[in-house]
Amino acid sequence: MVVGGGAAGMLASILLAQRGCSVHVFEQNERLGKKLFITGKGRCNVTNACDTVEDLLRAVVSNPKFLYSAFYQCSNHQIMEFFESLGVPLKVERGGRVFPKSDKSSDVIRALEQRMKKLRVNVHLQTRVRGLVLSGGEKPGIKGIRLMNGTVVEGARVLVATGGRSYPTTGANGSGHLFAKETGHEVVPPIPSLAPLLVREEYVRRLAGLSLRNIRFSVWEGKKCLYEEFGELLFTHHGISGPVVLSTSAVIGRRLHEGRAKGLIDLKPALSEEQLDARILREFDKNPNKRLKNVAASLYPASLIPVILQLSGISPDRPVHTVSREERRMLLGLTKALPLTIEGVAGFREAIITKGGVSVREIDPSTMESRSVPGLYFIGEVLDLDALTGGYNLQIAWSTAWAAANA
After folding, report:
1. What's the CA gap between 55 and 125, in Å, rounded?
2. 20 to 30 Å CA-CA from 156: which of 45, 67, 202, 309?
3. Are 316 and 363 part of one and the same domain?
4. DSSP letter string over 287-340?
5. CATH of the domain at 251
6. Both 260 and 377 in a single domain?
7. Residue 95 sits in the same domain as residue 36
8. Per-residue confidence in pLDDT tens, the chain, 407 aa
9. How far is CA 269 from the centre of its chain?
10. SS3 117
């Protein structure tokens, strides 16, 4: 029996049915793959086309060593071959991200559903599971599941593939964590990950919608740099998002949940302070009588100019020849280190994945079977496993499902 009809659950059911097992999938939603449908902004970033398993492991943030066996049993290239065999042509985009050529996640879900149907997997939609049923004895094993109406469905093996808590509109509610706790397993407290960051500064709201490319973003605790990343950042109505921010939340998310931190945006990371100062001087020398706000257009995006000038304390209408060296240094400082006060990580509604979950110390890494409850398996996002963006988190789902099915 498979509890959960998402990515991990669907793949596991197919692999088990191919091995001749009678498989039942219990899904609380009205259709399978509801979260899979919205992944990759509806395009479904199925995996990453990086060259080696070691490359996959380097992208895993929580417990990468645990995934060594699973990734070697089911690599990213095996998954690509699998979907191609199901009639889903794939393409590789920037950063090795793999998508269906159609750019439709529905094609991925449809292919999995058709394969499940062909293999006669029994799918029970809109069927919620209340808990797991264990056999008696000194070391209880799995006996089956209990539905919300009290019905007990017996089965020799149960795979929990309920996902985490991110995107609760898809039905994600952490039920698998509850099942784990009720059967004596440790659960690492779940928090949102690959999520936007909340920022205190008012000016961030005025910049909502502005995307900055090729910047360096860093987070500081006092004089200690906790994390830095080069890439793209997006301002939102509540803070910041974009690839560099999502990576930050994945790597130091727990630290950011504990209290405020300082964020800095280097708008011109390719230039040293000396080079940037020389460039600002050149712009000033070319246009000595122009107003500062007009000359600044050659240095900053339009919506950022009033923010930079307000923070610098320099009137936007000043002719540039009246700007002192100290004032110019102020502009330089803001350009290389635009300050933000990070007050936390956005909630599960905005998080792509969940950090935390069933402790991997209690799971066999080669089979995904519980070390304490024989016949009980945990796969996918319900486990304390997470990675950076780029298809790696779905690869975790595929690989852990593959390992459990093999077992």
Report:
1. 37
2. 67
3. no
4. -TTSBHHHHGGGTS-GGGHHHHHHHHT--TTSBGGG--HHHHHHHHHHHH-EEE
5. 1.10.8.50
6. no
7. yes
8. 999 999 999 999 999 999 999 999 999 999 999 999 999 889 999 999 999 999 999 999 999 999 999 999 999 999 999 999 999 999 999 999 999 999 999 999 999 999 999 999 999 999 999 999 999 877 889 999 999 999 999 999 999 999 999 999 898 999 999 999 999 999 999 999 999 999 999 999 999 999 999 999 999 999 999 999 999 999 999 999 999 999 999 999 999 988 889 999 999 999 999 999 999 999 999 989 999 999 999 999 999 999 999 999 999 999 999 999 999 999 999 999 999 999 999 999 999 999 999 999 999 999 999 999 999 999 999 999 999 999 999 999 999 999 999 99
9. 26
10. helix
- Residue 384: HSE in the Cβ half-sphere, 13 Å Cα cutoff: 19
Domain end marker among 305, 320, 346: 346
Quote the domain boundaries for residue 255: 196-346
Both tokens of 138, joined, read 């000194």
124 with 240, same domain?
A: no
| Sign, CA torsion 57/62/65/70 | negative
Nearest to 402 by CA among 9, 2, 6: 9
